[in-house]
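Record 1 of the preview.
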Amino acid sequence: MGQGKHEVSSQERRVKRFAIRYGLHLMKAQKPFGKVLQHGGYMLRDEDTRKIIFGDKNYEFSATLDEIEEFLEANTKPAAGDA
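->
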């Protein structure tokens, strides 16, 4: 917790780049409300199918940046050329 504005922006950019490599789009709630303000604010969407693949459990934009990053790390494998 307690991340500054610049740290959050930096993490958003890093997670967004990570997601793009796997054909995913990081979505951010434009007008956070209730639960989203308390916990969450992000979702991942598959660019090909436009289906939400993470961050919509119980309510939209339910994932934090940390949860999105953990999901990506656990569910993606580097391409043969990546090290």
